[in-house]
Amino acid sequence: MNLPESYIPILIQAGVAVGFVAVSLLGAHFLGPKQKKGNSVKNQSWECGVPVEGNARTPFSIKYFLTAVLFVLFDIEIVFFYPYAVNFREFGFEGFLAVLTFVAIFFVAFFYVWKRGALDWDK
């Protein structure tokens, strides 16, 4: 097999990664605690000594996930303000217009989400 020398570090890193995963999985299997079969009280789920209520597989409301996605979306907006805040003098008026455009797009998205009722938990 005739590989260029630049591929050798990549292959070494891939081999180390695969080896680490294999050793971790096998180590967890052989060294980890063994569960006894059966339906004993010891194998039941407990949270701080409080008995379990309901099923863990109960689906969440889509509003929960929608709120999480919207939080991430609008939180990422803040990350893009940092480079502007650090270099706002060098960006000049063109940079200011770019940031205003960026904020305007997010305000349009925010008002769209608000008008669609995604932020109303009561509905």
Could you please describe the fold and organization of this structure?
Helix 2 (62-86) packs antiparallel against helix 3 (88-116). Helices cover 63% and strands 0% of the residues. It is flat. The protein has a domain at 60-122. It has three helices and no strands. Its main location: membrane. This is NADH-quinone oxidoreductase subunit A.
Give a quick precis of the structure:
The protein has helices at residues 8-31, 62-86, 88-116. The protein has 123 residues and is mainly α. It has a domain at 60-122.
How much strand? under 5%
Given the helix and strand composition, which structural class is it?
A: mainly alpha
* Main beta-sheet strand count, sense and barrel state: none
Secondary-structure element string? HHH
Low-confidence stretches are none
Instruction: Please compute the radius of gyration using only Cα atoms.
Output: 26 Å
Shape: flat
Mean pLDDT: 83
* Number of H/I helices: 3
Report, as a whole number of angstroms, the end-to-end distance.
Answer: 64 Å
Question: How many extended strands?
Answer: 0
Helical content class = 55-70%
EC number: 7.1.1.-
GO molecular function: NADH dehydrogenase (quinone) (non-electrogenic) activity; NADH dehydrogenase (ubiquinone) activity; quinone binding
Protein name: NADH-quinone oxidoreductase subunit A
Membrane topology: Multi-pass membrane protein
